[in-house]
Amino acid sequence: MSVMKVLYAASEAAPFIATGGLGDVAGSLPKALSQKYGDKIDIRVIIPLYQNITDRSGFEFAGKTTVPLAWRQQYCGVFKLKMNNVTYYFIDNEYYFKRNECYGHYDDGERFAFFSKAVLFILPMIDFVPDIILSNDWQTSLIPVYLKTKYASYSNYKNIRTVITIHNIEYQGIYDLNIAEDVFDIHGKEKSIIEYNGAINLLKGAMETSDIISTVSESYSREIMDDFYAHGLAKIISSNSHKLRGILNGIDTDFYNPETDSALFENFSSKDIKKKYLNKLNLQMLAGLPQDENIPIVAIISRLVKHKGFELIIHGIEEVLKEKVQFIILGKGDRGYELFFKSLQDRYHDKVAVRIDFNQDLARKIYAGSDFLLMPSISEPCGIAQMIASRYGTVPIVRETGGLKDSIRDCSLGSGNGFTFYEQNPRVLAETIKRGLKVYSEKKDWEKLVEAVMNVDFSWNASAYKYFDMFQGLLTQGEK
Questions:
Q1: What percent of the chain has pLDDT above 90?
Q2: Quick one: three-class SS letters along 411-443?
């Protein structure tokens, strides 16, 4: 087989721009595939050129064109950068992307329709017609839709295979059906592809038109067959179940490396975990908590939203606060949760420290200085916080769902790497945390667990192989 050509289309990618897990994956998976299969795959990444991508050193201007979208003719500039043996393209249009935030604008549908159209429109200009286009979430869901409609008669495009990766099925790109033509350039019978329950549903359109639907963990691929997890799309998932795959995400272990991470107070390794305690003492000082390396720290680093399990925390945390323990919370989100944690800090100022913020530098300090990371998610497609925490010797406490179930095994099962529970019950949450605190009190057992947790391989190695195998199977299937 000749070199496989893959275009990875996403709305964000680290290190350029990342607001969550998608950005981390888009930044690390293509890099891992290129490192592992560089002689067999030419993988390129394409994202919007947002205003907040301020470091543009090394960017080359690759050309410009005009992209048609319904009645509009929109400017499209293309910039190019080669890094880590991966080629990155950036779609420039200041009207759509010169804004303070990536998402949350009234015209997000139009913005990402333009981006999706531009991805396909510029392929001849950059002289790269891929064998496979992998799209991610609703923002790029129109790429397979346009490919099967607008570009169906284009000879250069007819053999392109498509994958849609669902990072979180809750976000679907739902709009009024009346704007299908004017905003999305979808006409006549083509509307049925994106129509669902009387509205536009862009993710549904991608699932119908893509060759493969992938999710970010095996458990999540099974869970979304159920109405509870599918957010209304269970019927579509069921009718396309033959396309469904689940591959657990990994993390960039070069970036998340306690031996070299410049954000830490002290660098350390699994062979020298004593220095982890220095990170702990410095973190306690930074957080305004009593400095004592013998007090266990439970960290929460998360968006403060309901599906992350915060109702369980609200009703279970005060039972745990009776113990010798400290909590450090970093995140922002729903105002009610922010106010709750602020109130908790006021009442337990020597045990609870709260920072309402999204701060990656501080997050890495917390990962390194804490003893536990709490993730009691109701739904968690994959989650990478538990993997990052493990890399820094911080033991995960998780609810058994999605990628948390696939990545963390309870210590009571022998070769465990964390503490897990399934029941959505605050009492069970509290009991699970207390199980962890009990192991923490046995110093030798605890340090043995920390060392084991740090040595779990959460790199992309295994998952990169699964992606490459999926790509190969897709192309072989296309040749039949």
A1: 95
A2: HHHCCCCEEEECCCCHHHHHHHHHHHHHHHHCH
